Amino acid sequence: MTLALAVDIGLALLILAMAAWTIAVRDTFASVIGFVTYGLLLTLVWVRLALPDVALTEAAMGGGLTGALLIGAAARLRRTEATVRERPGVFTRTLAAVLSATVTAALSFCVLNLPDPAPTLAPGAAAKLGSTGVGNPVTAVLLAYRSMDTLLEAIVVLIALFGVWSLAHDRFWGGCPQLRTHADSEGILAYFARILPPIGIIVGVYIFWIGADFPGGKFQGATILAAMWLLVIGAGLAHFPPVSQAWLRILLVAGPLVFMAIGFAGIVTAGAVFAYPDGFAKPLILAIEIALMPTLVLALALLVAGAPQRMPPQ
Amino acid sequence: MKIALDIFTIFSVMAGAFFFLAGTVGLLRFPDPLTRLHALTKADNLGLGLVVLGLLPQTHWPLDTIKLIAIWLFALLAGATVGQLMACTARRGGGQPK
Amino acid sequence: MTTSGLLIATAIGTPFAMLLACLIPAFRKRMPPLLGLAPIPALAAALLADDTLLMFGNAQFKLAFAMDKPGTMLLTVAAILWIASGFYATTWLRNTGHAGSFVVCWLMTLTGCVGVFLAADLLGFYFLLAVLSVGASGLVLQGGTSKALRASAVYLGVALLAEAFLLAGLVMLAWVMPHGSLLIRDAAAAISTSPWRDLTLALLVVGLGMKAGLVPLHFWMPLAYDAAPMPASAVMSGAVVKASALALIRFLPFDAALPEFGLPLAAIGFFGAFYGVVIGLTQSKPKLILAYSSVSQMGFLVAVIGMGLAVGDSGSALAACFYAAHHLLAKGALFLAVGVFATTGRHRLWLVLLPAAVLALGIGGLPLTGGAMAKLAVKPIMGDGFVGLLANLSAIGTTMLMLHFISRLVTSTASIPSTSAPVCLASPWLLMFIAAIALPWTLYPMTGIGIWSYALQPEILWAASWPILIGIMPMFVLWRWRKALPQMPEGDLIVIGERALRKVITWGDGLEWAEGWLRRWPVATMMLLALAVFFGETLIGWR
Amino acid sequence: MNGPTLFGLCAAALIGFGLYGLIVNPQPLRKIIGFNIIGSGVFLLFGTIARRGAAAGMGGDPVPQALLITGIVVAFSATALAVALLLRLFDEGGVVTLVSEASPTEAKADPPDA
Amino acid sequence: MPHSLSAQDVTTPGGLLLVLAILIPFIGMLIGFVFGGGKAMRVALATLAVGLAIVIAIAKALVQSGDAVIYILGGWMPPLGVALRADGLSVVMLLAIAVVICGIGVYARADFGSPSGVKEARAPLTFWLLLLAVWGSLNLVFVSGDLFTLYVALELLTFAAVPLVSLDGRSETVRSALRYLLYALLGSVLYLLGAVLLYGVYGTLDIPLLAMRVRPEPVAWAALALMISGLLAKTALFPLHLWLPPAHAGAPAAASAVLSGLVIKGSWFLAVRLWFDVFAGVVTLPSAQTLGTLGAAAILVGNVVALRQTRLKLLIAYSTVAQIGYLFLMFPLATGLSSAGLDSAVAVNGGMLQAISHAMAKAAMFMAAGLIYTTLGHDRVADLRGMTSTLPMTVLAFALAGASLIGLPPSGGFLAKWLLISAAITTLQWWWALLMLVGGLLTSVYVFIVVVRSLAPAHDGWKPKLPVPRYQQAAVLALALCSFLLGAAVLCPLDVMQIGRTVSRNTLLP
Fold first, then answer.
1. pLDDT score, position C98
2. Which residue among E80, E166, E168 places its CB closest to the CB of D85?
3. Is E289:E332 a contact under the CB 8 Å cutoff?
4. How many domains does chain D contain in total?
5. CA–CA separation, C299 vs B11, rounded Å?
6. What is the ipTM of this complex?
7. Which domain holds residue B32?
8. Interface contact flag, D105 E249, Cβ < 8 Å
9. Can chain B be said to touch chain E, i.e. do they have 3 or more Cβ pairs within 8 angstroms?
10. pTM (2 decimals)?
11. CB < 8 Å from B in window 189-248 of A
């Protein structure tokens, strides 16, 4: 029973307690707050599992943006809390509990039976790390070995954005999304929104930049920059561009298109799509990441903002 | 010298933990939102300060130390802003009935 | 492409081409007068083509057509009926509105009918039978009344049910065919050697029996023939029903004696023969009486096939075919006669009644008519014992039914006594009458069943005539107490079927509620988890 | 019982909680939270496998880490779409629940769908 | 080339076409998004044409090489990198989906042409972008050889399909879309959980490598159970079909055609890929019988409830629920064949043909229902008078599509039934054959009802609400004819579907 194990057990119990509370509590708003806390605790677990990249992503995406999204939704839906009262009966709840417990038991059995010399692709990845010219193996996997997944990743985010925008009313199409805030421009939030973003942008770019060799990367950096943009708009100092804006659409589309262009260029220079010529891997990867940054920042922020709600000021 | 620094770290982190405890007790015991806010922002920020202070000697100089201090400053900034905002909302009575 | 191959191709090709031409409205309007011409290539093919195989398609799958002996005989006769009914339909269409859909259904049925007669491989046969069924149900729909809609729905329902059985049978047949060939020729041989012989035979007989109006599933026939327009009834009762009879003759293995399969089939056939007569006597509308006579005759035909199968004599296939050919001619002519009668006044009656009476009694086996020849051809298979007696009894029953038909026919003449049937209605009927009399005589020696001199011996003639005489006596008794007979509803069994269907629909409510309950969120998600757990358990079960 | 296995069991338990929450809670927002908890459970399981695969001088197998990051971003996009649908349902004035008022089979008055 | 390519998988000549087949639709979507407005439709239609050409080129490459078309992405060998693999099954599905999407594209030009006054309207732009997204993700599902890329493809498919359901924004359709999204997400999370377990035990997510490494052990059973039930949830097999009827009936006609004809085929194909390629050794006959029983329940309940529907689109939606049952009858038959040591190709071909003919027939049926709705103003089945006179080609298309679903010759449905019944007979599982015949009869009842109701002459003085352009009817008829004449596929010389399928052809069960 080393000290580390004790900490792990404590953390695990804390997380399970928080998850149970989030599910069981009656009031939805409290449940959302519980979920945000749960997300941040989960970041600690990733640190304990020595996976810093994932910890950063979880903190930024799981705790931060998802939390903002859910808190916004919970605040607006608080009034409908009373209407939906019919909680399923005892029998349904017990049956659901039994089924969930069976699934958990099966999974636990599988976890305990995982093979001991755990099969891993780490040696293979480490061997070929040199040719990708990137120090951080996770970034190497993301942008070299399995670059198709990352491209599809960006396309998933864009399609989700199209889906969210398709939910606008026809009369608001081409208008601007809105954050439901009632901040006054002289208040403390405006002051906060003037001080934090510059530092935030530096931190975001820094995380994006060191992603090549140390834990970090474009997703985490883009999330931080998106958060800063949301903060500024939330404080009322700026507002979202209209959906039909040309530069907005070009920037949104630029990331994947540049990625594909470099990918197809790979046929000529390195004999396969998404292959990098020897020696030029790092600059190309950086070019792709730089192209993807604006796409991700805009897309993630607009996903939180939701469908366009009002016509652009003529 | 190393031992002295270690002892300093232990004590300072213990003090920090104590202030966190005080803040949490304040959160649970105080009657209305404003007092609870007061307890939280004061105690937790101080606790965090002490913890950071305790950890300073453990980190090697240029980069990590600055990062640690920056974390504390961000926490202060965020705590103050959010505290002030929640206080305004609480005063206007628009907040949670609880 | 040999000449006979060309002939066969044109036989199916012309009606199919005309059907495709109907897609363009302009051609469709000018199509009615051509209806009579469409079957002529089929008649030419029947008379001239020999039995070479005509193949389409590549190595893996061939669509094959051929002209075997039963096919020749039946196609000749059917083609004549189609020509006569085609001319009849042309005049009939002149005074009805929507000719377009009638023409499309008519040509589709014609293509299907000729195709089935010529089809030589399983897939081609099944496809053309489907075309035939859909076309025929469309023809029934042309009746225009709500009764026609119901009759067409029942017809299509039974046809699709029959095709489901047939598909299962054909698949089991195809699975056992020698080195994957799909030819019907090898089918008969393959059946007797296949491991699932009884199941395959049962499926084929049930499938084709349903389309041939075998008794327990015959209820669609009276409904359809009564509701369909006159030329359509003639064609359907004649050619369309014979298509499935021909298929039975082709598929069943006559060379090997199968008493345990043939006898029950014969029993069902005889039961159908008598059932048709009994129900027919209670009907009043001439078309319904004819329909029930068809049920009875098809029953008798199936009995002949059953006996042939039991005895295992391959000649019986040809005899059954001859019997079917005669019935086709006679029944087609009688249906047209009903149409002609409906348009002639009381005074002009004699000119039309005499031939109709001769034809009607011919079905019963009146000597010197085709009917007697048919009964004679079938006699050796029936033998003289109990089965021979049954055959004579059915002849008596048919004669009684025909007399009842003639008496009902006389009362159903046109209202204005002096009108006579328009020439272009009467002429196709007369053509059919001459064919019904002359053709059996010519076909009898030509197909080698027997020779004239044998058929004309006095004791043969007497053996054919005493059932007719006996048949006449009870008619006087029956004619006086006609009112006392119970009035059976048209489709007899169908009425019970519809009541059962209504009860089944009420179960549907419960099922729909259960389905609605299954679509509630908690239930569906728990069902998903339960399925995952159960699925895992079935995987473990293997150890 | 070492660190990764412990968190593996914790992941299994989280998936169980998430499933329970997804099934039982009538509120769609609570169902979205349930879905997120299941997602984080699955990702935690993936993280455990990554940690167990630590070799060649790396803290964890990089391939599952990369897939994890992609998974988290996909889960976020899914949540964003679900919340957008929820808010649109709220704007339409409809009761924010998954149970449709008139179950489709009895929807006699057929709404004009383009 | 920096890496030595082991003999196991190497990029074949046609390989690059696979990458194009996936990325061209997405590039078209992105460019269409930037142009926006009316130009988006033109870009989409151009992409449809280019995509169709690419798919035909892939088919040619497959037939010429006689083996699966493979492409190693980025040159990184599979355990580390991702390989795209198209064998006979994938290419046949690629072709079928391409044809159906082109038909839908031509049909949707009228419904989703951008209105003249407005620079850009919401529904048309969304429809064209999401149509291309659905196509790209389906191509990825058919072609990808890596389980995680397939997970991302499933998510792409769901995110592209859900907004199609709530395209007209009524609260009922938004609720159906939300219900569909949540249930599909639950399905894909279970699928991901299975994939994670597989990676945890076998250290790779590549299909051929997994096929070699998977052994019948607890983790493999758990993974298979989770992945298959997740995919069943996304394919809406009977007990898990809560989202399908309201979603497919509420969506506009072209969108319903995409949802019913194409989207459910993606997760079904993935289930086939897992069952026959990855878990060939783990699969047992009882588990296959479970899938068959669920399919049987789907056929019976789906058809009976379809009979009782009053609205045409709901009737067709429940008919989809029933036809999905047919798709799952292939599993017990194929497993029965391979456990009897015979070649399971007959059942697999039957299942694929059933899927392809259903895709075309169902798309044609929904589009026909859309035309009927535009002309009549309502789609109550009881009152379809006069449709044959006003829309002859549409009713003919509906009838032909119905005939293909019933399984009348020469339709694709008939050929599929012929193959499946012969498989059922050889493995002595005659009850599946009986079930298929009963299902065909039930289907024939409601197809007959709709066709006969539309044959009735219209009320005098009735005029159609909106004239329907002829090319729309032509597109619907073309698709219905494709499905109806699919039976002729038996004439093509070689068995395209089984090319390159070395993995599962006749693996004997332990």
1. 67
2. E166
3. yes
4. 1
5. 109
6. 0.89
7. 2-91
8. no
9. no
10. 0.89
11. 189, 191-192, 195-196, 199
